[in-house]
Specification:
The protein has two domains: about 55 residues, Roll (SH3 type barrels), CATH 2.30.30; about 120 residues, no CATH class. Helix 4 packs parallel to helix 6. Strand 2 and strand 3 form a beta hairpin. By secondary structure, it is α+β, with helices and mostly antiparallel strands. The protein is built from six helices and six strands, in the order H-E-E-E-E-E-E-H-H-H-H-H. The chain is flat, with a radius of gyration of 22 Å.
Length: about 200
Amino acid sequence: MRYFLFLLLLLPALSQAQDVILRTSGEEVPAKVVRITPDQVVYMTGTDTLQMPAADVFLIRYANGTKEVLTKQTSTTTALALTPAQAEQLGRTDARQLFKAKGAFWGTFAATFVTASAYGVGGIATGAAIAATPPRAKNLIPSRPELLQNPDYVRGYQKQAQNKKLGKAAAGFGVGAGAAVVTATVAVLILFSQWH
């Protein structure tokens, strides 16, 4: 019986282990990548085998955690020919769409929830530290790889990514504080009901 329950719990996790195709538009397509050629990416969703132009694919995250960046055959001068204001704005737009800041939310949430007895001071400190830390270069996912050579683009991307981290940390603090209050209230009600 335990073995059967273990399999029931394991099957959903196994079925979700799949590749993710990150398009240059920022859209993520969960699929199983079958083949990559210079012109196209062949992938499966369910029982359907589909293809998309390789030029529309920026990155593939495989189920095993590895990543493969597909570079389009575009000139780097195109990315560098933007005005500084255009490059910075493009960097901000890409960061809004492509930058992930999951650790900022969950780290602040956990610190706030765990240190709730100290009025969430640990959550505030953790959130501030996470938000103040600039995003690592390896976490910058541009819409086109050659854009990382443009300092104005990188500056705009990093500013927006920092703002996104700050927002996620604030949300983590709020949710962590709320969860701590609910947990404390339930604990008090349980204790109170045992006395009467």
